[in-house]
Amino acid sequence: MIDFVHLVCDYAPGDMAWAEIRSAFSSELGVSVRLHATAVKSFDTIGTGFVLAQLSLAPEELRAKKLLVFANTAPRKDRHTPRENNEGEGLLYARLKNGVLVVAVNSGYSLSFVRDEIVELWSTNVVEAGSQFRSRDYFPRIVGQVVSDDLSCLVNQLAVAENIPAPPESVVAYRDSFGNLKTTIKTGDKTVMALKEGMRIKIKIGSIVRAATVATGSFNVLEGDLAFAPGSSGHKGRYWELFVRSGSAWEEFGRPASGSEVIIE
Q1: 18 falls in which pLDDT band (50, 70, 90)?
Q2: Which of 144, 208, 247, 248 is the most exposed place for a label (fewest CB within 10 A)?
Q3: 104 and 183, same structural domain?
Q4: Domain of 228, in residue numbers
Q5: pTM of the prediction?
């Protein structure tokens, strides 16, 4: 039985939505299941997928042993026509190679960063219309069943490759609270294989170009310097990130959104 649930949602920290969803989940799951909430930017499925992967793919010694990650970022962009009765994207169930369970809205890139780790993918019988706030009104029931090992909510087994897109390449994935920009460029990618420590490079995001120093960590550059280095995210291959020691790479590049292309020259 699951005893720890990570909630990854696109509500602002401290928003009333968090209070309501935590209350609804606590009512459904009971006091024995611990909850932890992580906020991502509104409608940001790339950030959602990045956080989901970081939490669910952590080594066993760095995560709860009986873990479920719930992700709800539902921009309702799978159809551009008007929606009847607040209908939204479906809710999927996935089991990963390491045994971690995932329940996530089938939106954008929300499951892309664990795509290659999924061994089972199912649709669920969640109610898809009738509420603007499905994560409070409908989703806790599904998660509650899964936590209790009741899989009667699963409907159709799905092919992963046909239903989950690959993660985007060479883009901004996530901005942390320090203003560091985590990218989808991983150690071993062709983009960074030729880079050596101390090399000076140009990086373009949007219309802004900045010079950066290739580094091996967050503190082996001068204070105020822009650096590009393998970061703390990614377990089977570190994601590279842009950071300014004692500053903000996000501000340096004009506050780019997740999905902004990162071009290295």
Answers
A1: very high
A2: 208
A3: no
A4: 172-264
A5: 0.92
CB 113 within 8 A of CB 49: yes
- C-alpha closest to that of 112 among 58, 182, 158, 52: 52
Longest dimension (CA), the chain: 57
Cα separation, 94 vs 67, in Å, equals: 12
Q: Residue 212 belongs to a domain with what CATH number?
A: 2.40.30.90
Q: Specify the pLDDT at position 192.
A: 93
Q: How far is CA 72 from CA 50, 79, 107, 141, 226, in A?
A: 13, 17, 9, 14, 33
Please name the amino acid found at residue 8. Answer: V
User: For residue 104, which phi and psi values (nearest 5 degrees)?
Assistant: -145, 150
Q: Do residues 46 and 72 both lie within one domain? A: yes
Which of 104, 100, 79, 110 is CA-nearest to residue 92? 104
